[in-house]
Design goal:
- The longest helix is centred in the middle third of the chain and has 22 residues, at 115-136.
- Helices cover 53% and strands 7% of the residues.
- The two termini are 24 Å apart.
- It has a 5-stranded parallel sheet with strand order 3-2-1-4-5, with helices on both faces.
- It has 13 helices and 5 strands.
- By secondary structure, the protein is an alpha/beta fold.
- It is globular, with a radius of gyration of 18 Å.
- Helix 6 links the parallel strand 4 (139-142) and strand 5 (164-165).
- It has one domain: 3-Layer(aba) Sandwich (Rossmann fold), CATH 3.40.50.620.
Amino acid sequence: MKPQLQREEIALIYDALVLGICDFFEKRSFKKAILGLSGGIDSAVVAALAVEALGSENVWGILLPSHFSSDHSIKDAEVLAHNLKCRHDMIPIEHTFVALSETLEPFFQNTSFDITEENMQARIRAVILMALSNKFNHLLLNTSNKSELAVGYGTLYGDSCGALSVIGDLYKWQVVDLARYINRNGEIIPENTIVKPPSAELRFNQKDSDSLPEYEVLDAILQQHLENRYGVQEITALGYDKELVVSILNMVSRSEYKRRQFPPILHLTSVMRHTV
């Protein structure tokens, strides 16, 4: 069973992240933020925090669907933006993806769709978001969580882009608890966003669990490694499968180069500075 934050703890985290956003923007003389809204829980939580920190009039959400995006994800993102009363626009990426694929066709011919094409979609989204950020003087907020960051589950120069990582020091289970807290006085983040299986939606029927252990298990092992500094032997002694532990810790090690290029994180612990 996953740990659960006490109401007082999650309230402190919420206040700290809101304060962190305010402070980051004030010190850099920016007032407006932009972010991609996927219909997932991570971008929903970041959007809600940004609206609390900066005001709904200063937050711009961009929906960037492809033909892999589900109807419910688009709907969830639209409902979220409506609940937050922030501006939102939709920019489909399919034409851009097709154009880029055609450009690369002479080199990619006789190859199959794989992670390359998945990453192309994430990077197209980053190019669009950064273009809008530059043109209209908005800072781009990154929406990756600590679990993804730790194991490198994200596209370099794609969903790793941003001026500030808001939830980069929160495990996935903590993001879920924070979403529940945000909804404490009424639904802001759609319930479907909170309960649906996480997915990057970069291919049909994709789920995060296709590439990663279930977050409940992943987060538990990561916490032992990152917070307690436990290695394979110590974590395995707690009852976790050794092969799984080795696999996760290898992912942490191999993805260091991605973390080195990640935007600044609003830190809630000191661990991320030294270990991840």
